[in-house]
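User: Could you check the structure of this?
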Amino acid sequence: MQNVAYVHTNGLITFQSTCTACPIVPFPASNVPPSVAVLWQVFDTASRGGIFYRVTSDPELMYQVYSIVLQEMNVIFDPEYAIVVTWNDVQEWFPVPRLQADNSFQAIIATDGVTTYVALFYREVDLARAAEVGFNSGDGVGYFLVASLRDASSQGIQSRSNLQSYDRPGFYVYRIDSE
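Assistant: Sure, the predicted structure tokens are below.
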């Protein structure tokens, strides 16, 4: 895990550098630093909702991450700390705000200093425009696309999961370090 993470209003968490003008483009994106696209879209946080983050080594959260990684990936992972970022009731930006178009989602990036996992949670997603969900290496080559939300029919990310035994729709876990 990088030593510095930048949290952006557009649903992006970048590493190594910030991204002040990152247009939403399909992966792989060479103009974007290494990043986690939790839900990469333009959100208006000034009029409604908010973004909250914390760095924590809370034993309960570390145990939850340990348990999920062990159960789902059959790997013993003992995280030391995590960054938790929540976009709560944020609206997609439009010149004219849409009614009842809230989006709530969260990322937990946990590391033991060598290995890093990310858990993505989607409580509510209501978008009118395209968005990307995934991981971008920043070199224009390496990426993993979880979902490319291009139209209303593909926005069921909050009702699916990549986990087999953990019955929680809208919940995804991935290993994201360079190994």
